[in-house]
Write a structure and sequence with these properties.
single chain
Length: about 130
């Protein structure tokens, strides 16, 4: 948020927008501070079991590969909702050890297209309907 606020303040010289971004940054900082303070006072537990969260027992790269796979599968389920499950618990989501799956490639393409679309500079000179 602070970087966006500085960029907006430098590129657009409008005081009202700067105040809105400053309020957003302040709110984000206060919310983050409250979250950190609340987490400090929570008693620790003995740990997470494999049945609750398998990703705590696998390496970081397998977590990323599994997350990309699940993102691609979720996007597919948005458009083709078959097969659905009422409970994605243990043994429903298995760790994925490669980027070479259809769903992982689909997720990477969607992420890349979204980034390209978000970085496209809007043209304010054209009049729209």
């Amino acid at each position: 948020m602070p970087v966006i606020w500085i960029w907006d303040f430098v590129s657009v010289n409008k005081n009202s927008r700067a105040r809105v971004w400053a309020a957003g940054c302040t709110g984000t900082f206060i919310a983050a501070s409250m979250y950190i303070y609340a987490k400090m006072n929570v008693p620790t537990h003995s740990g997470t079991s494999y049945l609750d969260n398998f990703s705590t027992f696998v390496s970081f790269d397998i977590r990323i590969k599994t997350a990309l796979y699940l993102m691609g599968k979720s996007i597919k389920l948005l458009f083709i909702p078959f097969p659905l499950s009422s409970d994605y618990s243990f043994a429903q989501i298995m760790p994925v050890g490669t980027f070479l799956t259809f769903y992982s490639a689909f997720a990477v393409i969607i992420i890349f297209c979204g980034l390209m679309w978000s970085w496209k500079k809007p043209n304010f000179n054209e009049k729209s309907c």
